From TrEMBL:
<feature type="domain" description="BON">
    <location>
        <begin position="78"/>
        <end position="146"/>
    </location>
</feature>
<protein>
    <submittedName>
        <fullName>BON domain-containing protein</fullName>
    </submittedName>
</protein>
<feature type="domain" description="BON">
    <location>
        <begin position="3"/>
        <end position="71"/>
    </location>
</feature>
<dbReference type="InterPro" id="IPR007055">
    <property type="entry name" value="BON_dom"/>
</dbReference>
<dbReference type="Pfam" id="PF04972">
    <property type="entry name" value="BON"/>
</dbReference>
<dbReference type="InterPro" id="IPR051686">
    <property type="entry name" value="Lipoprotein_DolP"/>
</dbReference>
<dbReference type="InterPro" id="IPR014004">
    <property type="entry name" value="Transpt-assoc_nodulatn_dom_bac"/>
</dbReference>
<feature type="domain" description="BON">
    <location>
        <begin position="149"/>
        <end position="216"/>
    </location>
</feature>
<keyword id="KW-0732">Signal</keyword>
Length: 216
């Protein structure tokens, strides 16, 4: 198991290696495997990329992001401009419903609301707008339409984990309660933990995923 100092050094190295991140004004602290990123960056996209870079590091148990977004004069845009751009981007994004998503922008912060059928559509909507110029943050208030069909959900999730996870899927426990999936067991990295969550979200009818898996 890595020490906090080793994790800190690796996270700093990963931030320096990531070409889309300027780590000059980013601070990294680690306690009990929990990484805290602080400081500021020039865009929300850069903030997201810094977060993803830290999550890639082996041994990271959790991540707290306290990075502020400071836009330069060139990147500043009015809320009305951002809202119009977001609406157009969502309209041109494949696999997204065209009439059920709503957009609100306040001080550069985008809030998406409405309903979609699948979790991947929630992710697609957020990913489509997070890299736009002038954006300081994105709140995902999109809800999944309930489509309960729990009979085969557990088997589908376990089969998906067997195909994707590097470790033995038998070590992963899947419990179903209504439309909520709870994952338990042991994995070897945060990547495998996230992979298990993604597999659970891909099952039809799932509205909530609780990941109680531990990393060893």
């Amino acid at each position: 198991m890595k020490t906090d100092l080793e994790i800190q050094k690796d996270v700093i190295a990963e931030l320096n290696w990531e070409p889309s991140v300027n780590p000059t004004d980013i601070g990294v602290e680690v306690k009990d495997g929990i990484v805290t990123l602080s400081g500021y960056v020039g865009s929300y996209a850069e903030k997201c990329n810094a977060e993803h870079a830290a999550q890639r590091v082996y041994g990271v148990q959790g991540l707290a992001v306290e990075i502020a977004v400071k836009l330069s004069g060139f990147n500043n845009r009015s809320d009305a401009d951002i809202a119009r751009t977001v609406e157009n981007v969502l309209l041109w994004t494949t696999d997204l419903p065209k009439t059920t998503l709503k957009v609100m922008v306040e001080d550069g912060w985008i809030t998406l609301s409405g309903e979609v059928d699948w979790e991947y559509q929630k992710r697609a909507a957020v990913d489509a707008v997070r890299y736009l110029m002038g954006v300081k943050g994105v709140s995902d208030d999109i809800h999944l339409k309930p489509r309960i069909s729990v009979t085969l959900i557990k088997a589908d999730i376990e089969d998906a984990l067997k195909r994707r996870a590097r470790n033995d899927a038998r070590d992963i426990k899947v419990d179903i309660s209504g439309s909520e999936v709870t994952l338990g067991g042991v994995v070897h990295s945060s990547y495998e933990r996230d992979l298990a969550s993604h597999s659970a979200w891909c099952a039809p009818g799932v509205l909530h995923v609780k990941n109680n898996m531990t990393i060893e």
